[in-house]
Amino acid sequence: MRNLSIKGIQKQFFTPPDRQIIALDQIDLDVRGGEFISLIGPTGCGKTTLLRIIAGLEIPNSGEILLDGMPVDDLHRISTLVFQQYSLFPWCSVIENVMFPMEMKGIPKDERQNRAEEYIALVGLSGAEKAQPYELSGGMQQRVAIARALAHDPEVLLMDEPFGALDERTRHRLQNALLDIWKKKRKTIIFVTHNIDEAIYLADRIIVMTTEPGRIQEDVLVDLKRPRNRLDASFTELHLKVRNSLERTV
Ligand SMILES: Nc1ncnc2c1ncn2[C@@H]1O[C@H](COP(=O)(O)OP(=O)(O)O)[C@@H](O)[C@H]1O
Ligand SMILES: [Mg+2]
């Protein structure tokens, strides 16, 4: 699995009449292939913009994204973005939703079907293949979105507050489902969250960002064995550390 390097990324936006926002300023970050990174920081610090740049949906003003040290010109092919809103096609069944991106990639029908079934099972939704999105709870819809994102086998999974709209219990279940899949399929994951507890539970490393300009404030190693226990002293210690770091950003 290739290592991802974010090198000297700068991105500014102009908003009328003449305001200039430095959304990202000199972002340097090295992510090992297969590593699980959490990005955390106040609203407006450029988290979504950074994911969009890594996904090839936004062009930075300067800097580049490298894989194993090489520039990539088809970033959108190596990564997938999962949003807070499940963004399923409401007129398609669960399995049709999961198969759709594979169809776009030209994967043959039988293989699409097999892979979709495998990933629907991995997210714990076997039996719901023919259901329509409106029949599913928010947590189940987000499981479908994860299956859809992973079934076409991206090298990098980018997640933008994917569990932000879910209640705590559902969120914890989905965190465990995601960790299970990550263990089985070894993906590089960059996961944006507002929730310190979620970042510590999931990630190998937490990147704390500051706003205006968006910069990396601190890179916190989460050196805890999985499965992690939220009640452990080492967990709560890290919680405090990240919280203090976040408080310094505002
Ligand atoms: N398309 C855009 N045009 C103008 N400003 C933008 C645009 N996208 C983002 N911004 C601004 O850039 C900054 C970072 O935004 P964003 O990446 O969405 O932050 P976050 O996801 O951390 O909340 C914010 O000030 C936001 O208003
Ligand atoms: Mg955002």
Number of strands: 10
What is the CA-based Rg, rounded? 18 Å
Total individual domains = 1
Structure class: alpha/beta
Ligand species: adenosine-5'-diphosphate, magnesium ion
Strand content: 25-35%
C-alpha end-to-end distance? 36 Å
Q: Quick check: average pLDDT?
A: 95
State the gist of this model.
The chain is an alpha/beta fold. It is 36% helix and 26% strand.
Question: Would you write up a description of this structure?
Answer:
By secondary structure, this protein is α/β, with parallel strands linked by helices. The protein is built from eight helices and ten strands. The chain has helices at residues 47-54, 75-78, 94-104, 109-122, 138-151, 168-185, 196-202, 233-247; strands at residues 4-15, 19-31, 36-40, 62-67, 70-71, 79-82, 156-160, 188-192, 205-210, 215-221. The chain is globular and about 50 Å long. The chain binds adenosine-5'-diphosphate (ADP) and magnesium ion (MG). Adenosine-5'-diphosphate (ADP) binds at residues 13, 15, 21, 23, 43-49.
Overview features:
four-stranded antiparallel β-sheet; 10 strands; globular; binds magnesium ion; 250 residues; 8 helices; alpha/beta; Rossmann fold; binds adenosine-5'-diphosphate; six-stranded mixed β-sheet
Reconstruct the topology from this structure:
Layout: E1 4-15, E2 19-31, E3 36-40, H1 47-54, E4 62-67, E5 70-71, H2 75-78, E6 79-82, H3 94-104, H4 109-122, H5 138-151, E7 156-160, H6 168-185, E8 188-192, H7 196-202, E9 205-210, E10 215-221, H8 233-247
Parallel strand pairs: 3-8, 3-9, 6-7, 7-8
Antiparallel strand pairs: 1-2, 1-4, 4-5, 9-10
Helix pairs in contact: 3-4, 3-5, 4-5, 5-6, 7-8
The structure holds adenosine-5'-diphosphate and magnesium ion.
